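Support request from a user on the community tier.

User writes: "When I paste my structure tokens into the form, the page sometimes reloads and wipes my input. The last time it worked, I copied everything first. Here is what I submitted, just in case something in the input itself triggers the reload:"
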């Protein structure tokens, strides 16, 4: 009959569309894999490394004022010293006490700190007056990633920080906390984040009296990316989550997020 479309024709068109989608997804997968392989093989940009390993004080007035405020709080003795950026700075004191019951805590996290800022503080602040604590907790690097610095350069800067701490406090236990996922779907520079954390955790494994910890998927309310039809987790295939463990910026943990993060670390530490 005129005006009627046969079922076989519809089915055929549907199959063509399916094959086209699969071909497109396969092409996307191959391009992503190739780009990832090239990124892993590419040498680290010397300029990036120079920036990340050259100590310099924070160029942000509000952050430098916070540094000056914390200088006035530094005491010569503390059981645990926290060194890092806003993630550590905002860690509620009662949650830190859960990790280190009965310990005296000196929280020297600074908003917006980069690895080079922390390197500068280690050698140009009253941190030098602090006697070796039992434990130093270190989390640093996310702000460098946000600034577009390559993962290998951020790793080089982080390793310089850890070496400095070890030289300064030879007997202190170092607990390195890996950089947390962030951004929409927690996929911001996710491949770089993985490379950074892997490189630094390998470095920490070679140090004496040092451990590296990573938060599991319970912090981000599930894996950082949803499975796609190709069967891989691709950085441009994120799901946009509304995870209550993070503030709306998907960068800083919420109060509930800090409770979850503390519980994760408690399970891993003891």
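"...and here is what came back when it finally went through:"
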């Amino acid at each position: 009959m005129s005006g009627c479309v046969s079922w076989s024709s519809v089915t055929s068109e549907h199959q063509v569309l399916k094959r086209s989608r699969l071909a497109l997804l396969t092409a996307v997968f191959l391009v992503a894999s190739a780009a990832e392989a090239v990124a892993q093989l590419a040498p680290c940009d010397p300029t990036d490394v120079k920036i990340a390993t050259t100590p310099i004080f924070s160029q942000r007035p509000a952050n430098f004022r916070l540094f000056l405020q914390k200088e006035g709080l530094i005491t010569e003795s503390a059981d645990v010293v926290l060194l890092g950026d806003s993630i550590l700075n905002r860690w509620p004191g009662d949650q830190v006490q859960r990790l280190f019951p009965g310990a005296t805590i000196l929280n020297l996290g600074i908003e917006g700190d980069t690895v080079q800022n922390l390197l500068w503080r280690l050698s140009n602040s009253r941190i030098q007056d602090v006697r070796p604590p039992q434990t130093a907790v270190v989390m640093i690097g996310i702000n460098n990633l946000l600034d577009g610095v390559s993962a290998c350069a951020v790793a080089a800067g982080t390793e310089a920080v850890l070496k400095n701490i070890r030289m300064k406090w030879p007997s202190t236990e170092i607990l390195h906390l890996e950089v947390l996922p962030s951004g929409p779907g927690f996929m911001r520079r996710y491949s770089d984040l993985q490379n950074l954390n892997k490189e630094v955790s390998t470095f920490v494994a070679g140090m004496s009296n040092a451990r590296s910890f990573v938060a599991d998927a319970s912090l981000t309310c599930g894996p950082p990316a949803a499975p796609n039809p190709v069967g891989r987790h691709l950085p441009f295939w994120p799901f946009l989550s509304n995870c209550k463990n993070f503030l709306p910026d998907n960068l800083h943990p919420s109060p509930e997020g800090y409770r979850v993060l503390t519980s994760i670390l408690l399970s891993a530490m003891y």
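Agent notes: The reload is a front-end session timeout and is unrelated to the input. The longest helix spans residues 7-41. The longest strand covers residues 80-84. Escalated to web team.
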